[in-house]
Amino acid sequence: MSGTSLDGLDICYVRFDDDNYFEILQAETINYSSDWRTKLAEAYKYSAMDLCQLDVEFGYFLGEQVKEFIQRNDIQQVDFVSSHGQTIFHQPQKSFTLQIGNGAAIASRCQQKVVCDFRTQDVVLGGQGAPLVPIGDELLFNQYDACLNLGGFSNISLNRKEKRIAFDICPINIVLNHYSKQLGKEYDENGVFAEQGKVNNELVAELNELEFYQQSFPKSLGYEWVESKFLTIVDKYDISIEDKLRSCVEHFVIQIKNIFALYDINNVLITGGGVRNLFFINRLRKLTNVEIIIPNDNLIDFKEALIFAFLGYRRVHNKINCLASVTGASRDHSSGVIYNL
Fold first, then answer.
1. Which regions form coiled coils (predicted)?
2. Strand pairing partners for 338?
């Protein structure tokens, strides 16, 4: 699993005994080199030919990392490798999405069956191609009112009227990391930079008026939206980077709080890298009365990787892994391309 925040490659070795039980056996995050981080961050600017080349190159890299992970942990049994890839373009309104990390290239390096490209089929069936994690929330984590992921984007899933619904709420780390880099850090550790800033109420109010927040689900966000709609607003304001971070945190918390209230959520399981932003979590606790449940480190860091393994598990067994109630596709379906060696 490689997310939009580009903080590293998550590899999770998990056992599924059925559709309702899992056990994480090994898990590890492999940090990207500065070279890979730059390539992936700038890939949306590449020519078609260069992007095709990067797709295969990144696939080779993923396959090599999986092979080394298997060897390092002395893993004896692997049924398949499930890969999300790295999202470069996501424009479901134009019927396309692109995650690079060529599945055949992965398989050629790790010598395992590979399941990948989970989003494309959903998009061409009229769906958003995202979020895809809710099938796992529905079957593996249904004891909670809602599941909230704080990654590059924040997204939530919950069950309403016997149907799982889910959607992106707002950007999170993709924005916070962007401004932290201007202060010489890859991310705002514990939210220290944001905590030093002051809220610019005018900026927060303008962000709260973005059209996306007025739309009903299904809906999803991509980097293109962040760059063209969100950052352009923030950068209009002649304020310190710390104030921009603080104002963005306040905006994000308000948006999440609004969703909690709208769906009458009493408790929520929160995972993803944003959980480690203590200032953000403290602001969320202060502004809401919802019981916030933070699990063990493995689930915080590897829940998305775990569920993409679950998507692969269900695809290999030809079971539904994409829910129309979540994505807006014309029907439930089993998505993913399988490369058999």
1. none
2. 115
Enumerate long-range contacts of 263-268, CB under 8 Å, 24 or more apart: 263/146, 263/158, 263/160, 265/145, 265/146, 265/158, 265/290, 266/145, 266/290, 266/291, 267/144, 267/145, 267/146, 267/291, 267/292, 267/293, 268/144, 268/145, 268/146, 268/147, 268/148, 268/156, 268/292, 268/293
Residue 88 tokens, joined: 């470069």
State the DSSP H helix or E strand holding residue 172, giving kind and residue range, or none if neither: none
Contacts of 106 (CB under 8 A, 6+ apart): 59, 60, 62, 63, 66, 81, 83, 114, 116, 339
Backbone dihedral angles phi then psi of residue 114, each to the nearest 5 degrees: -125, 135
Average pLDDT over residues 142-153: 95
CATH class of 134-298: alpha beta
282-311: average pLDDT: 96
Please report, for residues 42, 175, 240, 296, 304, the alpha-carbon distance to residue 235 in angstroms, rounded to integers and kept in the order given.
Answer: 20, 12, 10, 37, 31
d(C-alpha 113, C-alpha 19), whole Å = 20
User: Residue 295: how many CA atoms within 13 Å on its side-chain side?
Assistant: 18
What is the model's pTM?
A: 0.88
Domains 9-127+334-339 and 134-298 share a fold: yes
Structure confidence at residue 5 (pLDDT): 72
pLDDT at 19 (0 to 100): 87
CATH superfamily, domain at 9-127+334-339: ATPase, nucleotide binding domain (3.30.420.40)
